[in-house]
């Protein structure tokens, strides 16, 4: 029985050494160390042995089992390591190869202009207000001193959905809604960025959809000088510290008096060139003192409160700031155009 155990050990160790795959090694384990293996079969005959021989054979059987199991474990680790090394050899990476370039996106020029203007006015104590793009006729026109059949409505050819619902033609409805929420109590100090819609024929300077940022300040003793000072800060921040502004009389139904605001031409320094049409000035936005009717309709006492409002065309500012000659470039998603603004990143 002792000789048989030693023979089985030698036989098993030879098969372990010859195994070249984990599957073969596992078959050796089951074959020799399993419940139905030859070692177990030998031990079943221990009942025929004398009391003195049984402990010796039992100890030998355990030694044989441990020797075979140890060699199997050792061979298993070797085969697993070899498998990993073989896999790594087929999946090598040449670290000397140049990396693939990753295209980095950047802010759209219109987004950059909006954020720059928002940062400026937030720093001056304004809050950002928003409202729906699908608007009621009341907030879009009537609450802004534009009753039905008012001739000034023709200035903003509109996309009507029903007789009383339309795509907003300016962001002024946000001002009307905000004033209404204040229930006649000032101060109010907001800017209203957003998309607006008008039935324009798209060309180099017009679009049926564009962006505006309107501003509104309501408090006691607000005057035209407050508006001029605010817009002077705006012009210098966006276009450069050497820019100057001028105000020209104009007409808007929701402000009285109303003004058009020009900045001095950056190209010629105010001397006159083709860009400014030899005037030395470029029109950038409109504004004025809030009409008393607008204040009263929103619940403010026009004898106690006054205010100013202004409207900025984002595309207009971006075209002047970056020298873009066609508004359609902003909306065609031409990567060649957008890539030009990488160098403008902060």
Automatic annotation (TrEMBL):
In the Enzyme Commission scheme, what number(s) does this protein have?
6.1.1.20
Entry note: cofactor:
Binds 2 magnesium ions per tetramer.
Any one of the GO BP annotations: phenylalanyl-tRNA aminoacylation
MF-aspect GO terms? ATP binding; catalytic activity, acting on a protein; magnesium ion binding; phenylalanine-tRNA ligase activity; transferase activity; tRNA binding
User: For binding Mg(2+), which residues are annotated in this chain's numbering?
Assistant: 256
Reaction catalysed by this chain? tRNA(Phe) + L-phenylalanine + ATP = L-phenylalanyl-tRNA(Phe) + AMP + diphosphate + H(+)
Keywords for this protein: Aminoacyl-tRNA synthetase, ATP-binding, Cytoplasm, Ligase, Magnesium, Metal-binding, Nucleotide-binding, Protein biosynthesis
Name the CDD domains for this protein.
PheRS_alpha_core (cd00496)
**Keyword Aminoacyl-tRNA synthetase part of the UniProt annotation:** yes
Q: What is its main location?
A: cytoplasm
Cofactor(s) required, per the database record: Mg(2+)
Aminoacyl-transfer RNA synthetases class-II family profile domain ranges (all copies): 111-340
Q: Does the keyword Glycosyltransferase apply?
A: no
What compartments host this protein?
Cytoplasm
- One matching Pfam family is tRNA-synt_2d
Give an example GO cellular component term for this record.
cytoplasm
Can you state the subunit structure given in the record? Tetramer of two alpha and two beta subunits.
What the record says about family reads: Belongs to the class-II aminoacyl-tRNA synthetase family. Phe-tRNA synthetase alpha subunit type 1 subfamily.
Recorded hits in HAMAP family, A to Z, give: Phe_tRNA_synth_alpha1 (MF_00281)
For this entry, the protein name equals Phenylalanine--tRNA ligase alpha subunit
Q: Which organism is it from?
A: Peribacillus butanolivorans
């Amino acid at each position: 029985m002792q000789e048989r155990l030693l023979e089985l050990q030698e036989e098993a160790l030879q098969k372990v050494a010859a195994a070249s795959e984990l599957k073969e090694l596992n078959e050796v384990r089951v074959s020799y160390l399993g419940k139905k293996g030859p070692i177990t079969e030998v031990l079943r005959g221990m009942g025929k042995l004398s009391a003195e021989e049984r402990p010796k054979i039992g100890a030998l059987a355990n030694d044989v089992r441990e020797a075979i199991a140890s060699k199997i474990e050792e061979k298993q680790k070797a085969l697993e390591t070899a498998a990993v090394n073989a896999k790594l050899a087929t999946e090598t990476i040449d670290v000397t190869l140049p990396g693939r370039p990753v295209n980095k996106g950047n802010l759209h020029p219109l987004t950059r202009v909006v954020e720059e203007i928002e940062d400026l006015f937030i720093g001056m104590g304004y809050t950002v207000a928003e409202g729906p793009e699908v608007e009621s006729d009341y907030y879009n026109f009537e609450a802004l001193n534009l009753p039905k059949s008012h001739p000034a409505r023709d200035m903003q050819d509109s996309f009507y959905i029903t007789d009383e619902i339309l795509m907003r033609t300016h962001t002024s409805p946000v001002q009307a809604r905000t004033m209404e929420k204040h229930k006649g109590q000032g101060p109010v100090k907001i800017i209203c960025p957003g998309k607006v819609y008008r039935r324009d024929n798209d060309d180099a300077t017009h679009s049926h959809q564009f962006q505006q940022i309107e501003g509104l300040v309501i408090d006691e003793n607000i005057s035209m000088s407050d508006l001029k000072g605010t817009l002077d800060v705006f012009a210098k921040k966006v276009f450069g510290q050497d820019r100057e502004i001028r105000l020209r009389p104009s007409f808007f139904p929701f402000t009285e008096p109303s003004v058009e605001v020009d900045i001095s031409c950056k190209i010629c320094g105010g001397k006159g060139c083709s860009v400014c049409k030899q005037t030395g000035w470029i029109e950038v936005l409109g504004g004025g003192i809030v009409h008393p009717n607008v204040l009263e309709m929103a619940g403010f006492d026009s004898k106690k409160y006054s205010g100013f409002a202004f409207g900025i065309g984002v595309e207009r500012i971006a075209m002047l700031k970056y020298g873009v000659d066609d508004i359609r470039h902003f909306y065609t998603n031409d990567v060649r155009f957008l890539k030009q603004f990488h160098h403008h990143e902060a």
